[in-house]
Amino acid sequence: MLLISIRFHDGRYHGSGEWPPSPARLFQALVAGAARGENLSEDAASAFRWFENLDAPLIAVPWAYKGQPFRNFVPNNDLDAVGGDPSRIGEIRTAKAVRAYTFDAAVPLLYAWTFEPHVDAEQHARAICEIAENLYQLGRGVDMAWATSEIVDEREAESRLCEEAGMLWRPSEGGDGAMLSCPRPGSLKSLTKRFVAMRQRFRTVGTGTKTSQLFAQAPKPHFRQVPYNSPSVFLLFEIRSADGFSPQPLERAVALTEKVRDLAVARLKASTWRRDDPKRETLADKIFIGRDSQKNDKARRIRIAPLPSIGHAQTERSIRRVLVAVPPDCPIAAGDIAWAFSGLPLADPETGEVWDDTAELVAASDDTMLARYGIDESARLWRTVTPAVLPECAARRRIDPVRMHEEAKGGAERRREEEKAASAVRDALRHAGVDTPVQAIHVQREPFEGKGLRAEAFARGTRFIKERAWHAEVSFSRPITGPLLIGDGRYLGLGLMAPDRRTDGIIAFAITDGLTDQADPLGLARALRRAVMARVQETLGRRATLPAFFTGHAADGAPLRSGQHQHLAFAFDALQQRLLIVAPHVLERREPFKDEREQHMPTLENALKDFQQLRAGVAGKLALVASGLDVSNDPLFAPSRAWKTLTPYHVTRHARLNDAAAALEVDLLAECQRAGLPRPRIEIAETFPKPGAGLFGHAKLEFRRAIAGPMLLGRDRHLGGGLFVACT
């Protein structure tokens, strides 16, 4: 691969309306750096003609956001309004809005082109490497940049693309992703023609005192538009018989996938699709089965995933649906693939055998099930429904059943096995094309849901040994969308992950520096609230009215007094030195409303993409880093029977009792009831009044069963007051 690395001097890019800079723009910059006027050396011209014939490159860029816009006054394209006289150009100046993309200048932009290795190709590639050293800008004239280039093997290039930049852009042969201009045969010739024409745009006509100048536009360069990061096509089928759904056992996910796959490819090869072109038989084997496929074919293969029913703790984890994901650059049309699967005979509902014709695949009329697997909806926390098959190096040591006691594993050995498995999960995510940074990984053999199955159950009758199967929980730094399948069995229905919605609506930032000893929890929460509202206002526009979801105030400016959680809560966790933003549906332990899910939460996440600093008055100038949540172990979120206050509880309505502790207990019971919590046993640790504010105190709650957090109660709950932590 030919790998070109671009670095900008000041971390700003002013190119017109695009991010990342397109390969065509880089091609133009390389030509400009190599040319002397309109002249190119024969070696350079030959290298560019080879270069423009390559397929569209992979692109890796840092995360970027649009900076503050400003206006620049420039001449418009209406010279005829002043009689075509260039000396009067100052009369037709107009305001032009400029808004640069801002990013970390220390992170390079990487462009990687694949080429077949032979003597001429490597000679041209080395010539491009030398030409890249002459690059001096990319974008507008103010976008000063420099480049380095090298020839590396494909594995090293893909590793660097994933590790050195923030976001990876992949080209597609089809689809409707973001369109970027790329070189094509003839691009160099069109640039040369445009350069010559640009030098002859003004032409003097007439003689004597009646001379004038005419302006002619130069021809546009020739590039092709290539879609990048196109979405896949998802085909959802239901397993049905004459009596309705024909559910299949969860542990037979691999057998079901193999039978569905083999039947579909056999049907396709027996149809006119194959007879029109005999070479298609090999293509079908590559795309469906992976037979004789190369590394580059992996991204083009279809993925077949049996979908167990999930969503509620009482739901039986049987397979009732099958998802077929068709990549955008798949060489077989999605319509042909859909035809191959429709109506396939699957299984006998009584015996479970997968070759009877009593059940078949039927195209689903309702695709709401896809949301449960994160398709078109994003989440930070993901858990396996079917276990991931990890490499041999992550396999557990097998214990002879006859010698269970003699060969029992100690805690240190189990920890080492889990650490190896967690490391293998990171590699599996990279192999699956997931480049989002990971915050935490937890692995285990047991399922995460009560109706699930242990990892070993899925290995029976497959080519995978049970010691390689692990259930995994992954917490990402940013929400990602599904479907997500990882591990060596991802083409056979294993390693299927589903989002855990418990962290949806909770955004955490770790404080890495700047916190002073004078930090007050409520003061920090107020500073965070002001910063969030300011950033949301900037996102929506200065003239837009902030919704009550962000402000906690009605349209007339009055505080919301419905008694329900309708707006964000902000809190400071002193134990782990982090700031928390909690959505109202999390506080009320309910599903988010449509406007919360589709409007407000995406707006909030977009506004906080680059939130790295908070000025909090006496609390300090805080350096922030987005932090993931492991809700299974976090003391503010993990289920617990006993909870105690981390910040003082502020009574909502002071009961007229002679005893302050009794008044606080009565108010706390009412708050638990309003929050939908079971009645706890309450121990009041202390009470203290604040003149002009009311009664405060610390307390401990004990429930009969474990209750999951977060627990925010009391009058100051939206500013982090009444924050409870699990008792250890």
Would you write up a description of this structure?
The strands form nine sheets. Strands 20, 21, 22, 23, 24 and 25 form a six-stranded antiparallel β-sheet that branches. The chain is α+β, with helices and mostly antiparallel strands and 728 residues long. The protein contains 15 helices and 35 strands. Helices cover 24% and strands 26% of the residues. The two termini are 54 Å apart. It folds into five domains: 2-203 and 221-226; 233-372, Alpha-Beta Plaits (2-Layer Sandwich), CATH 3.30.70; 378-399 and 409-500, Immunoglobulin-like (Sandwich), CATH 2.60.40; 506-627, no CATH class; 640-726. Helix 2 (42-51) crosses helix 3 (119-132), helix 6 (253-269) runs antiparallel to helix 8 and helix 6 crosses helix 9 (334-341).
Short structural summary:
This protein has 728 residues and is of the alpha+beta class.
Can you tag this structure with a few keywords?
728 residues; alpha+beta; Immunoglobulin-like; 5 domains; six-stranded antiparallel β-sheet; five-stranded antiparallel β-sheet; 15 helices; 24% helix; globular
Query: What is the count of helical runs?
Result: 15
Low-confidence parts: 348-352
Protein structure class: alpha+beta
| Rg for CA atoms | 31 Å
Main beta sheet strand tally, sense and closure = 6 strands, antiparallel
Shape: globular
Q: What is the total tally of β strands?
A: 35
Helix content: 10-25%
State the end-to-end distance: 54 Å
Q: What is the total domain count? A: 5
The portion of residues forming beta strands comes to 25-35%
Mean pLDDT equals 85
